[in-house]
Amino acid sequence: MDKSETERYITMVIDAALASEDSSVKQAYKVIAQSDGFLFIPRMPSSLILDSSLYYKIYDIVAGSLFPAYTVIRATTMQLVQREDSLSMARAFFYPWKVGVSERLVAPTYDSLPISSDRYTVTLMKGMEYDLRKAPHFIISGGSGSGKTVATKYFLNTFLRKIGTNGRLILIDVKKSHGARWAKQHPEVDLLVPNPSDRPEDFLPRVTEKLAEVIDEMNRRQDFMFNQSADKVTDYSEFGDPIFVIIEEAQALTVGLKKNLLETFQSQLKVLSLLSREANITLGIIAQSAMAEIFGGSQVRQNVGLRLLLGRIDKESAKFLFPELESGFPLPIGGKGTGIVSINDGEHIGIEPIAMPTVMEDF
User: Fold this and answer.
1) Distance CA 26, CA 285 (A)
2) Tens digits of residue pLDDT in 232-259
3) Alpha-carbon distance 319 to 339, whole Å?
């Protein structure tokens, strides 16, 4: 469809859902299609109330109707933009979109995946990349059969290729599961798993000791930059290699622990999520169900750059990781590793569907 055809189609879709007095026939609004999205421009005065309820109602009306020609991105907040027009039409709702549907990456081996040559960029799909410098730290959540394990393995393999000579990839896995078995094949990974006789209260102090070691390194790097760099804006990627700290099965790690042990762990997660970006340290947390009880509140969630929810998407599964999600939208269909993602880097402004890379050697 060309621009005018797209505008007519969107207008017909909205007219079919709005009350007759609010339709385009009554000149109550008009639609303008742009390269990066479309504008819904109400003509004032109007019975339409320009609030988030109307914004997301229009989104729900249009998103499914445009798929798969366009993927309309669900913005995390209402996008009200100013226009150069008469006062009656000087404002509009903006709905970002991308043309078509982002494609899943498929390759026979990890080595053959078309990954970004930029050391701090992780390719998630064709047309979707995650910049660790702009948006460090991530949470991956998904139940059994969601593809969470395969997604985690993709991140681990990607990070392993990016750590450099003096970087570190630290993997903490309380269940000695897929990630730990993968790490056994890669001696350069700093793997921490329970000893055979460990109880949960025995293992967590070893975890907090490892995290304290990372926090000490964070402080050392920050002191180095303070003393050595005259730049007002900088980070440790200019001086040294990255550190990746990945905590697998975080939910299992925190079950049944004494309050003081749990609070120490949660405090360290908050410190790393808040302060470690400039130190070139990335924290990754993987859990079957992301809940406030794991993190000691919402502070960690608010400071992660990437939130990824795989598998079943409903209000219950999304309520902690995506509290702003009130409605559904088209998801990519085609096997494990599909879900929704939000990248908080100043360039991606909403929640998007995702299909994580598939590597055939995993199946």
Assistant:
1) 52
2) 667 888 888 999 999 999 988 888 778 8
3) 14
Cβ(142)–Cβ(321) below 8 Å: no
CA distance 186 to 179: 11
Over residues 61-119, the pLDDT tens digits come to 999 999 889 999 999 889 999 999 999 999 999 999 999 888 888 988 888 887 777 88
Q: Which of 320, 314, 356, 353 is nearest to 149 (CA)?
A: 356
Where does 106-362 sit in CATH, by number?
Answer: 3.40.50.300
- Please give the C-alpha separations between residue 76 and each of 153, 212, 334, in angstroms, as whole numbers: 28, 34, 26
CA distances 298 to 71, 290, 293, 320, Å, are: 29, 11, 9, 8
- Residue 132 Ramachandran class (φ > 0 left, ψ -120 to 50 alpha, else beta): alpha
Q: At 41, which amino acid appears?
A: I
Tokens 């997301």 map to which residue? Answer: 56
pTM attached to this predicted model: 0.87
